[in-house]
Specification:
Layout (H helix, E strand, L loop, with lengths): L8 E4 L5 H12 L3 E6 L2 H15 L3 E5 L5 H11 L4 E4 L14 H29 L2 E6 L12 H21 L4 E8 L5 H14 L3 H10 L9 H11 L11 E4 L9
Parallel strand pairs: 1-2, 1-4, 2-3, 4-5, 5-6, 6-7
């Protein structure tokens, strides 16, 4: 399918690896010129060159910590006017309700709620002025069904979801859509981190922890960054203009719910 976005310009945050990289790859394959961001310059530059070589698109890099005001300012200036925005940030560490203090919650909000909002506020005006734009926020399946040990993530991402629910309906009339993608477990560094925590707690190997988790997923496996990216690219396409304010699960069926 021709997504109809060749020649568009996108910014994808936290895209040197994992789900962000999967989204950047899918957009590049569709002919979208990219600005990609991450904290680690070396991995970021390697990803940029990989995308240039594979797809022949323009790729600009910006190494900055998107969770800070300074990093956001650097990123927004480097990105400039874009047609597509994909927000992403690593999730907070797992733990118990008694483990977290105010500073922990502030860090989670900065990364997983306030940073995406800052990027949206900066980039929405251009999209609205031109009458076309696409925004996709990578959140978590925990928005639909909270995961007890991910209380920091549950809280921050739920706040972002509420913001998107209202804002998406305010801007849809200008030809701009905002939607959220809710990943379950995918084969990324985040999964390794979570499985390592389980492995340590249960005194088993990381491989055993991953295999046990996979058995709880109806699809019987972890997702891939490539299939996640393909879904993101569709939401950014010309064909997705009537999808507004939705929270789309990519979890292999692991969230047990009807709606």
């Amino acid at each position: 399918m021709d997504l109809g976005i060749a020649g568009k310009r996108a910014f994808v945050s936290a895209s040197s690896k994992g789900l962000g990289k999967g989204c950047a790859q899918a957009l590049a394959e569709a002919g979208v010129d990219l600005v990609i961001g991450a904290r680690g310059k070396e991995a970021l530059e390697a990803t940029a060159e990989e995308l240039r070589q594979a797809h022949g698109v323009s790729v600009t890099t910006v190494a900055a910590d998107i969770t800070t005001a300074e990093g956001q300012a650097i990123t927004i200036e480097a990105a400039g006017d874009v047609d597509i925005l994909v927000t992403n940030a690593g999730g907070p560490p797992p733990g118990m309700w008694s483990d977290w203090n105010r500073d922990d919650f502030i860090r989670a909000l900065d990364a997983n709620m306030l940073a995406p909002i800052a990027l949206m506020k900066a980039m929405l005006p251009h999209m609205m002025d031109q009458g076309w734009g696409r925004i996709v926020n990578i959140t978590s399946q925990s928005v639909k069904a909270p995961i007890a040990v991910l209380g920091l993530s549950n809280s921050a991402r739920a706040g972002l979801t509420g913001y998107v629910a209202g804002t998406s309906r305010q801007v849809a009339g200008s030809g701009v859509t905002i939607n959220n993608l809710l990943p379950g477990i995918h084969a990324t560094d985040r999964a390794v981190s979570l499985d390592s925590t389980v492995a340590k707690a249960q005194d088993i190997s990381v491989e055993e922890a991953a295999a046990n988790r996979a058995k709880t997923i109806p699809a019987g496996r972890y997702g891939t960054a490539a299939e996640f990216g393909a879904t993101c690219a569709f939401l950014c396409s010309q064909h997705a203009g009537f999808i507004v304010g939705q929270n789309i699960l990519l979890d292999g069926g692991s969230t047990n719910m009807t709606l």
